[in-house]
Amino acid sequence: SVPLSFFGGIGGASKSGVLVKGSNYLEALANTEMVVFDKTGTLTKGNFIVSEIYSKKMSNQELLELAAYAEDYSNHPIAQSIKQAFGKTIDSSRIKDIEEVAGHGVKSVIDGKVVFAGNAKLMKREHISYNDRKLVGTAVHIAINNEYMGYILVEDKIKQDAPHAITALKSAGITQTVMLTGDADSVGKKVATKLKLDKVYTELLPADKVEHVEELMKQKNEKRSLAFVGDGINDAPVLARADIGIAMGGLGSDAAIEAADVVIMTDEPSKIATVMKISKKTLRIAK
Ligand code: ADP
Ligand code: MG
């Protein structure tokens, strides 16, 4: 039977803005060794802003319009930033055959022309030669009928609460902090260095994230747990694979909240250390 204090633990967590979906997770939380983070929307705001537009083929405004049309159907935070920068209404009747390519970008048919908008990986996949000079930020390359048109740079910011989230985890006894991201190597490394994370893996596809979590599960002490924290935009399979799947509920998708064992109701990653401390206290009382 479940000790009564476990309910107190779940209640205490919920007062701190954390939903724990079962008393068994209190034990796993108290026993966590490794915390693996998804970057976007978890350690960073997930709120990109267009910082640069570059094209030799059309005006900046035309490139932005093209990208906004290509991204019209996407819910990805990068798509949102481009549509917001464009700022005008989109005539959806011009758009057909929309395809979201996870970890790459989008493909749409606009006015009968095939438009790709996404990262270097997408351009390589489609054999489109693109501007590959060292770009600082997350580049969205755009091509029409396989002809390169230019790029839009978007930038996200580290959450104000993130540095504290990492130091609080260290003081709660977490020995390894890891970040996984589909974003560019330059962007991922910069965030990891700023936050003093122990490990970072970049330019990953959603399936690669599952593989990395499986590999990290083998590396940790088998009696202790691995927690994965994500916002659920295509990381629901990773949330399910970890010992404890934690979703950022503030921004996160319904799929993430569904797949997760623990939901942070605010957008503060420092709540992870808070709920781990509550779990430890609860277990001491229960024992
Ligand atoms: P993250 O690990 O940051 O959650 P995702 O798996 O969502 O990343 O995406 C990885 C990369 O794929 C992004 O950094 C971006 O380069 C590209 N990408 C994904 N979706 C889109 C989109 N709708 N438009 C442009 N680029 C995209
Ligand atoms: Mg994501």
Automatic annotation (TrEMBL):
It is found in: Cell membrane; Membrane. It comes from the Bacteria. Belongs to the cation transport ATPase (P-type) (TC 3.A.3) family. Type IB subfamily. This is Cd(2+)-exporting ATPase.
